[in-house]
Amino acid sequence: MDPLSDIISLLRPSAAVSKPISARGRWAVHYDAHDAPGFTIILSGEAWLTFEGKEPLRLAEGDFLLLPTTPAFSLASEPHLPAAPVTPRDEAVRHGDPDGPPDFMALGGSFAIERVNAPLLLSLLPKLIHIPASEGRSTRFGRLTDLLAEECTTDHPGKELIIRRMLEVLLVEALRWRRLGSEIVPAGLLGGLQDPAIVRVLQAIHADVRAGWTVAELARVAGMSRSAFSARFGEVLGCAPFEYLVRWRMAIAKDALARGNKTLDRIAEEIGYESASAFSTAFRKRLGYPPGKFARAAHLSPCDLR
Asked: What Pfam family is a match for this entry (predicted)?
């Protein structure tokens, strides 16, 4: 699989909560941070999103917003209004004037993800992905959001299932969005996927993670000198090439340990270690405890760890 598909496969995202959000008049609400990816699709009207220390961001009809991790934020009918604290709920919410037709409507919610590798994998993604309707409307992404908005207004059988599946597809589309400006793509995987030389290296690593890659070999894949490649990789990905390889190997190992369906020998072989002992040593050095302890913490039977 390609690098992004590998990352998403380990995260195993699913739309855990999706709910309609509506409002009327002047209003402002504040949500505390939570550790699940959040999303919002603006169905009609507009609102202003503000993160602590940042300028308000205008969200208009057709816009899509994805937060791989969700910091504290305020949502309001206009910028700089005092915000009332609210608690996230799994049901439809109404802000502002409770009477009359809403002048703002959105679909918001969160994704459930596999927790074992969430901190590492989410660190490879930008903090915010905002796809304005003006950029996404004429693309497949725009067509998907239109279909989702249409589904939200119907009462057809299977509506909830369709919405969940479409949200999962939108998540993947958002993560591979090619028009993300440099201002919202810090060092990480998405930046690497937009760099032709670096993406060749990422594809090579993910295609054969067990190979004994050296920086010189990866530089040849990139078509660059070793020094230029190391500098470029660090700038784009935020870590050294070998560090990325080790992180990815450990992510695969942690996922396998959590599932409990492979022996240590098998895991070691699949990610490029000569033996279970060599893998265990590397795992302990990286995480501070042995694979067996990690697996037991994931409620696995010791017999799965031979």
From this structure: HTH_18
